[in-house]
Amino acid sequence: MDGRESRQLQKREHQIASNNSIGFCGWILVLFSLLLSLLTFPLSIWMCIKIVKEYERAIIFRLGRILPGGAKGPGLFLILPCTDSFIKVDMRTITFDIPPQEVLTKDSVTVCVDGVVYYRVQNATLAVANITNADAATRLLAQTTLRNVLGTKNLAEILSDREEIAHNMQSTLDSATDDWGIKVERVEIKDVKLPLQLQRAMAAEAEASREARAKVIAAEGEMNASRALKEASMVISESPCALQLRYLQTLNTIAAEKNSTIIFPLPIDMLQSFMRQ
């Protein structure tokens, strides 16, 4: 959290505390409660001392109003038994799954998308004073934000730009929950489920693309092989010795195989006469 956000949160806490004056009658009740605690000491000490854990904060209400100074804790703090009450707030990171949402994309394709959200309470005072149930409100807002963000994307963008979509969702949720004292730390898109017919169509399209690519590669290979054979034939035609050597190598290769074929070597000079004709 940067300095600007910190100053804004402190300003909101100050506004809440400035509106929480208990008045003259309230101070009379507070003094009476304090006097009663002193008269019943040390029995009253068990009702006055409260403990919150390291990951918790306590919001103290005195006659229904939040005490100035913000949240208390961790450790020990004191309350007055008759006039004070408190609420514990968990400050740890909370994780929840976004239920699968059926979304109509920009190119009119229905997909089912789910995700996961990580958030924590950044300001316990605002989380108690400004919202009834911060967890439930954040869950509902995450579902709505997921549908709104994906509705502006087409199918190809949803499948390829998950990181960008998650970042947009995080920014939107973080700004919306700022007044609740909640910090959205991370949003992830878990799964994108496509209709079965669309899956088959995409698989057929990918297979056709691969076959076309394979045919192009095979044609290029044949063309390169033809060029190599043409160059080899030109080299051999320039040298009669090279042609005779190639002829003898071919005879040697055929004779090395185990077969019943009988080869009668033909003089290369006889072939040259046929080639000239």
Automatic annotation (TrEMBL):
PROSITE patterns on file: BAND_7 (PS01270)
Keyword Transmembrane helix among UniProt keywords: yes
Cited Gene3D superfamilies: 6.10.250.2090, Band 7 domain
Family annotation (Pfam families): Band_7
InterPro entries: Band-7_stomatin-like (IPR043202), Band_7 (IPR001107), Band_7/SPFH_dom_sf (IPR036013), Band_7/stomatin-like_CS (IPR018080), Stomatin_HflK_fam (IPR001972)
Regions that span the bilayer: 21-47
GO cellular component annotations of the record: plasma membrane
Compartment annotation: Membrane
Principal place of residence: membrane
Domain named Band: residues: 47-206
Keywords assigned by UniProt, alphabetized: Membrane, Transmembrane, Transmembrane helix
Family the UniProt entry places it in: Belongs to the band 7/mec-2 family.
Protein name: Erythrocyte band 7 integral membrane protein-like isoform X1
Primary gene name: STOM
